Amino acid sequence: MNWKRTVLLSLVLAAVGTAAVYADDIYETIKAKKVSVSVNGQSLKEQSLQVNGKVYVPLNEMADTVQAMIEYDGDQVAIYKPNVHMALFSVVKDRITTPFGNVTKGGEYNFAIFTQVDNLQKEVKNLKFEIFDPQGKSVYNAIFPLSLKDNFWHFTPTITLKFNQTGEYKIRAYMQLSEQGEYHLVSEKIIQSLEK
Predict the structure, then answer these.
(1) Nearest CA to 125 among 51, 71, 52?
(2) Whether CATH 3.40.50.1980 fits 79-194
């Protein structure tokens, strides 16, 4: 019985070794080289390849990094990159007052997100805002229905948020191209929460 297991194990190991060598041969045949790609100091998680002087990157991961929307239609891929600018304003007694920025840890603040969008090439169904604490946990999430293809401006209702940690709170804006489609990251803003 042991000799059967030994033969079977030898065959499996030979097959795995052959597959690994074959995969390396494919890279060599097409002259592909694995490369690491980073955007603004953040490395892409998926592998990128360099072939004949051109670098091929994973499109879905790259879309979030450059904050663009991707639409697939059969063998066609369309990339849309609207200009999305966010500004934060303090809200006092339901009135928008001054620009809003860094905060003190432990403080509770009322603010609104003003968003200005231009170069919108495709109709957008929904606009979503989500705020993440320094640990990456979502602490605010709101969706605003739209049906716009033109440039637009948007103010959120007052957001009340307590900043319990020090570090970067990330405000992310997402757009949805179709009612059932995925949300695409189109802009990001940072609030620094500092010690007293």
Answers:
(1) 71
(2) no
d(CA 171, CA 156): 13
For 83, list phi and psi in degrees, rounded to 5. -85, 115
What does the pLDDT read at residue 76?
87
At residue 26's C-alpha, the angle toward residues 21 and 28, to 5°, is 95
Indicate where the chain has its CATH 2.60.40.1930 domain(s): 79-194
Residues contacting 179, CB < 8 A, separation 6+? 125, 126
CA-nearest of 66, 27, 15 to 186 is: 66
Type of residue numbered 125? K
Identify the CA nearest to 160 among candidates 105, 103, 93, 112.
Answer: 112
**Tens-digit pLDDT profile for residues 59-83:** 777 777 778 888 888 888 888 889 9
Q: Structure tokens of 175? A: 């757009």
